[in-house]
Amino acid sequence: MAINQSTAPAVTGVRGPEREPVTLDVNGSTFPIELEPRVSLLDALREHLDLTGTKKGCDQGTCGACTVWVDGRRVLSCLTLAMSCEGHQVSTIEGIAQDGELHPMQQAFVDHDAFQCGYCTPGQIMSAIALLREGNATTDADIAEHMSGNICRCQAYPNIHAAIREVRDADDGG
Protein backbone atom coordinates (compact mmCIF):
# COMPACT_ATOMS: atom_id res chain seq x y z
CA MET A 1 0.00 0.00 0.00
CA ALA A 2 1.48 3.31 -1.03
CA ILE A 3 1.55 6.24 1.37
CA ASN A 4 -0.33 9.27 0.16
CA GLN A 5 2.30 12.00 0.40
CA SER A 6 -0.31 14.67 0.91
CA THR A 7 -1.54 13.09 4.20
CA ALA A 8 1.76 11.77 5.55
CA PRO A 9 3.29 13.81 8.36
CA ALA A 10 6.17 16.00 7.27
CA VAL A 11 9.58 14.76 8.31
CA THR A 12 11.36 17.64 10.00
CA GLY A 13 14.63 15.93 10.81
CA VAL A 14 15.92 13.23 13.09
CA ARG A 15 14.76 13.42 16.69
CA GLY A 16 16.24 11.55 19.58
CA PRO A 17 14.51 10.30 22.68
CA GLU A 18 13.27 13.07 24.92
CA ARG A 19 13.88 13.29 28.64
CA GLU A 20 10.99 12.12 30.75
CA PRO A 21 10.25 12.52 34.44
CA VAL A 22 10.97 9.48 36.59
CA THR A 23 11.07 9.00 40.33
CA LEU A 24 13.70 6.64 41.68
CA ASP A 25 13.66 5.30 45.24
CA VAL A 26 17.30 4.78 46.16
CA ASN A 27 18.60 3.84 49.60
CA GLY A 28 15.34 4.93 51.22
CA SER A 29 15.23 8.36 49.56
CA THR A 30 13.07 9.52 46.68
CA PHE A 31 14.67 11.27 43.72
CA PRO A 32 12.51 12.90 41.03
CA ILE A 33 14.69 13.35 37.95
CA GLU A 34 14.38 13.58 34.18
CA LEU A 35 16.07 10.94 32.07
CA GLU A 36 16.13 9.76 28.51
CA PRO A 37 14.44 6.34 28.37
CA ARG A 38 17.69 4.66 27.30
CA VAL A 39 19.68 5.71 30.40
CA SER A 40 20.96 2.75 32.41
CA LEU A 41 20.42 2.55 36.14
CA LEU A 42 24.20 2.73 36.53
CA ASP A 43 24.43 6.02 34.66
CA ALA A 44 21.41 7.43 36.50
CA LEU A 45 23.03 6.61 39.84
CA ARG A 46 26.47 7.94 38.96
CA GLU A 47 25.71 10.87 36.66
CA HIS A 48 22.34 12.12 37.85
CA LEU A 49 22.26 11.24 41.56
CA ASP A 50 26.01 11.54 42.29
CA LEU A 51 26.07 8.08 43.88
CA THR A 52 29.45 7.02 42.57
CA GLY A 53 30.05 3.99 44.77
CA THR A 54 28.64 1.70 42.11
CA LYS A 55 31.37 1.26 39.52
CA LYS A 56 31.26 1.05 35.74
CA GLY A 57 33.59 -1.75 34.78
CA CYS A 58 32.80 -3.41 31.48
CA ASP A 59 29.43 -1.72 30.80
CA GLN A 60 28.38 -5.03 29.21
CA GLY A 61 27.17 -7.08 32.18
CA THR A 62 30.18 -9.35 32.45
CA CYS A 63 32.22 -8.03 35.40
CA GLY A 64 29.70 -7.40 38.19
CA ALA A 65 31.30 -4.14 39.37
CA CYS A 66 27.93 -2.40 38.95
CA THR A 67 25.92 -4.84 41.10
CA VAL A 68 23.10 -3.20 43.08
CA TRP A 69 19.81 -4.52 44.47
CA VAL A 70 16.39 -3.82 43.05
CA ASP A 71 13.72 -4.92 45.51
CA GLY A 72 16.42 -6.91 47.28
CA ARG A 73 17.53 -8.87 44.22
CA ARG A 74 20.97 -8.55 42.65
CA VAL A 75 20.98 -6.77 39.30
CA LEU A 76 23.66 -5.51 36.97
CA SER A 77 22.88 -1.81 36.87
CA CYS A 78 24.68 -1.35 33.54
CA LEU A 79 22.10 -3.63 31.89
CA THR A 80 19.06 -2.28 33.73
CA LEU A 81 17.15 0.70 32.36
CA ALA A 82 16.62 3.33 35.04
CA MET A 83 13.02 3.84 33.88
CA SER A 84 12.25 0.21 34.69
CA CYS A 85 13.15 0.84 38.33
CA GLU A 86 10.40 3.38 38.95
CA GLY A 87 8.20 2.02 41.72
CA HIS A 88 10.95 -0.31 42.96
CA GLN A 89 13.45 0.07 45.79
CA VAL A 90 17.06 0.41 44.60
CA SER A 91 19.87 -0.21 47.09
CA THR A 92 23.49 0.72 46.47
CA ILE A 93 26.72 0.36 48.42
CA GLU A 94 26.12 3.83 49.88
CA GLY A 95 22.95 2.61 51.58
CA ILE A 96 24.08 -0.50 53.43
CA ALA A 97 25.90 1.06 56.40
CA GLN A 98 23.56 1.83 59.29
CA ASP A 99 23.89 4.65 61.82
CA GLY A 100 27.49 5.33 60.83
CA GLU A 101 28.50 1.69 61.32
CA LEU A 102 29.82 -0.40 58.46
CA HIS A 103 27.67 -3.31 57.39
CA PRO A 104 29.22 -6.54 58.76
CA MET A 105 30.22 -7.53 55.20
CA GLN A 106 31.98 -4.21 54.67
CA GLN A 107 33.85 -4.71 57.95
CA ALA A 108 34.76 -8.28 57.02
CA PHE A 109 36.18 -7.07 53.69
CA VAL A 110 38.36 -4.61 55.61
CA ASP A 111 39.38 -7.21 58.22
CA HIS A 112 40.31 -9.80 55.58
CA ASP A 113 41.95 -7.34 53.17
CA ALA A 114 39.44 -8.56 50.59
CA PHE A 115 40.39 -5.97 48.03
CA GLN A 116 43.47 -4.60 46.40
CA CYS A 117 42.67 -1.88 43.91
CA GLY A 118 39.11 -1.77 45.31
CA TYR A 119 37.36 -1.12 42.03
CA CYS A 120 35.23 -4.27 42.15
CA THR A 121 34.64 -4.07 45.90
CA PRO A 122 31.23 -2.34 45.93
CA GLY A 123 29.79 -4.93 43.54
CA GLN A 124 31.49 -7.76 45.40
CA ILE A 125 30.03 -6.60 48.72
CA MET A 126 26.52 -6.15 47.30
CA SER A 127 26.67 -9.65 45.79
CA ALA A 128 28.16 -11.18 48.94
CA ILE A 129 25.37 -9.82 51.14
CA ALA A 130 22.74 -11.05 48.68
CA LEU A 131 24.51 -14.41 48.47
CA LEU A 132 24.05 -14.93 52.19
CA ARG A 133 20.45 -13.73 52.11
CA GLU A 134 19.75 -16.17 49.25
CA GLY A 135 21.24 -19.05 51.27
CA ASN A 136 23.88 -19.81 48.66
CA ALA A 137 26.99 -19.78 50.85
CA THR A 138 26.87 -23.23 52.43
CA THR A 139 30.19 -24.40 50.98
CA ASP A 140 33.25 -22.81 49.44
CA ALA A 141 32.13 -24.21 46.09
CA ASP A 142 28.73 -22.52 46.53
CA ILE A 143 30.40 -19.21 47.31
CA ALA A 144 32.67 -19.50 44.27
CA GLU A 145 29.77 -20.44 42.00
CA HIS A 146 27.34 -17.78 43.18
CA MET A 147 29.99 -15.04 43.24
CA SER A 148 31.32 -15.98 39.78
CA GLY A 149 29.53 -13.02 38.18
CA ASN A 150 31.75 -10.63 40.12
CA ILE A 151 35.24 -10.44 38.65
CA CYS A 152 38.29 -9.27 40.60
CA ARG A 153 41.20 -8.47 38.32
CA CYS A 154 43.53 -8.37 41.35
CA GLN A 155 42.61 -11.98 42.20
CA ALA A 156 41.63 -11.27 45.82
CA TYR A 157 39.19 -14.21 45.76
CA PRO A 158 40.62 -16.11 48.77
CA ASN A 159 40.22 -13.02 50.94
CA ILE A 160 36.77 -12.23 49.52
CA HIS A 161 35.64 -15.78 50.28
CA ALA A 162 37.12 -15.57 53.79
CA ALA A 163 35.14 -12.38 54.43
CA ILE A 164 31.95 -14.05 53.23
CA ARG A 165 32.59 -17.11 55.42
CA GLU A 166 33.18 -14.88 58.45
CA VAL A 167 29.84 -13.10 58.05
CA ARG A 168 28.07 -16.37 57.23
CA ASP A 169 29.46 -18.04 60.34
CA ALA A 170 28.64 -15.04 62.55
CA ASP A 171 25.06 -15.12 61.23
CA ASP A 172 24.89 -18.83 62.03
CA GLY A 173 25.95 -18.17 65.61
CA GLY A 174 29.58 -19.14 65.38
From TrEMBL:
Keywords: 2Fe-2S, Iron, Iron-sulfur, Metal-binding, Oxidoreductase. Residues 1-20 are annotated as: Disordered. Pathway: Alkaloid degradation; nicotine degradation. Pfam families: Fer2, Fer2_2. One of its GO terms (molecular function) is oxidoreductase activity, acting on the aldehyde or oxo group of donors. PROSITE patterns: 2FE2S_FER_1 (PS00197), 2FE2S_FER_2 (PS51085). InterPro entries: 2Fe-2S-bd, 2Fe-2S-bd_dom_sf, 2Fe-2S_ferredoxin-like_sf, 2Fe-2S_ferredoxin-type, 2Fe2S_fd_BS, Aldehyde_Oxdr_Iron-Sulfur, Beta-grasp_dom_sf. This is Xanthine dehydrogenase YagT iron-sulfur-binding subunit. Residues 20-96 form the 2Fe-2S ferredoxin-type domain. It comes from the Bacteria. Coiled coil: none annotated.
